[in-house]
Amino acid sequence: MDEKMLINNVKYLVNKYLYERNDLVELIMRDSDSVKYILSEISKGKKGDYDEEDLDLIKDISFYYL
Q1: Mind listing the pLDDT tens digit for each residue in 22-35?
Q2: Whole-angstrom distance, CA of residue 22 vs CA of residue 10
Q3: How far is CA 29 from CA 7, 17, 18, 46, 66, in A?
Q4: How far apart are the C-alpha atoms of 66 and 39, rounded to whole Å?
Q5: How far apart are CA 66 and CA 60, in angstroms?
Q6: If we measure between CA atoms, which residue out of 45, 23, 19 comes closest to residue 34?
Q7: Per the CB 3.0–4.6 Å rule, which of 17, 33, 40, 65 could disulfide with 46?
Q8: In which band, very low, low, confident or very high, does the pLDDT at 66 lie, cut at 50, 70 and 90?
Q9: Distance, C-alpha 31 to centroid of its chain
Q10: How far is CA 16 from the centre of its chain?
Q11: What 8-state DSSP symbol labels residue 50?
Protein backbone atom coordinates (compact mmCIF):
# COMPACT_ATOMS: atom_id res chain seq x y z
CA MET A 1 0.00 0.00 0.00
CA ASP A 2 1.58 3.25 -1.10
CA GLU A 3 0.94 6.67 0.42
CA LYS A 4 -1.63 7.68 -2.21
CA MET A 5 -3.64 4.52 -1.55
CA LEU A 6 -3.35 5.13 2.20
CA ILE A 7 -4.76 8.62 1.85
CA ASN A 8 -7.65 7.42 -0.31
CA ASN A 9 -8.48 4.58 2.09
CA VAL A 10 -8.40 6.81 5.17
CA LYS A 11 -10.55 9.41 3.41
CA TYR A 12 -13.04 6.66 2.56
CA LEU A 13 -13.19 5.49 6.20
CA VAL A 14 -13.57 9.01 7.58
CA ASN A 15 -16.31 9.88 5.10
CA LYS A 16 -18.17 6.65 5.85
CA TYR A 17 -17.95 6.61 9.65
CA LEU A 18 -17.34 10.25 10.61
CA TYR A 19 -18.80 12.28 7.75
CA GLU A 20 -18.79 15.46 9.89
CA ARG A 21 -15.02 15.32 10.53
CA ASN A 22 -13.54 16.91 7.40
CA ASP A 23 -10.63 18.08 9.56
CA LEU A 24 -9.40 14.47 9.62
CA VAL A 25 -9.48 14.29 5.82
CA GLU A 26 -7.44 17.48 5.65
CA LEU A 27 -5.02 16.11 8.24
CA ILE A 28 -4.30 12.87 6.37
CA MET A 29 -3.71 14.85 3.18
CA ARG A 30 -1.13 17.03 4.96
CA ASP A 31 0.48 14.42 7.21
CA SER A 32 0.30 10.70 6.44
CA ASP A 33 1.96 9.98 9.81
CA SER A 34 -1.32 10.92 11.51
CA VAL A 35 -2.87 7.54 10.64
CA LYS A 36 -2.88 6.22 14.21
CA TYR A 37 -4.65 9.33 15.51
CA ILE A 38 -7.24 9.27 12.72
CA LEU A 39 -8.01 5.56 13.19
CA SER A 40 -8.48 6.14 16.92
CA GLU A 41 -10.85 9.05 16.20
CA ILE A 42 -12.87 6.86 13.84
CA SER A 43 -13.03 4.12 16.46
CA LYS A 44 -14.20 6.54 19.16
CA GLY A 45 -16.73 8.38 17.00
CA LYS A 46 -18.35 5.71 14.86
CA LYS A 47 -22.03 5.07 15.48
CA GLY A 48 -22.20 1.36 14.62
CA ASP A 49 -20.01 -1.61 13.87
CA TYR A 50 -17.49 -1.70 11.05
CA ASP A 51 -18.43 -3.51 7.85
CA GLU A 52 -16.36 -6.66 7.25
CA GLU A 53 -14.53 -5.23 4.22
CA ASP A 54 -13.70 -2.10 6.22
CA LEU A 55 -12.18 -4.24 8.97
CA ASP A 56 -9.90 -5.81 6.37
CA LEU A 57 -8.96 -2.35 5.13
CA ILE A 58 -8.15 -1.19 8.66
CA LYS A 59 -6.00 -4.29 9.21
CA ASP A 60 -4.06 -3.53 6.01
CA ILE A 61 -3.55 0.10 7.02
CA SER A 62 -2.42 -0.98 10.48
CA PHE A 63 0.01 -3.52 9.08
CA TYR A 64 1.72 -1.05 6.78
CA TYR A 65 1.51 2.21 8.75
CA LEU A 66 1.33 1.53 12.48
Answers
A1: 999 999 999 989 99
A2: 12
A3: 6, 18, 16, 21, 17
A4: 10
A5: 10
A6: 23
A7: 17
A8: confident
A9: 13
A10: 10
A11: P
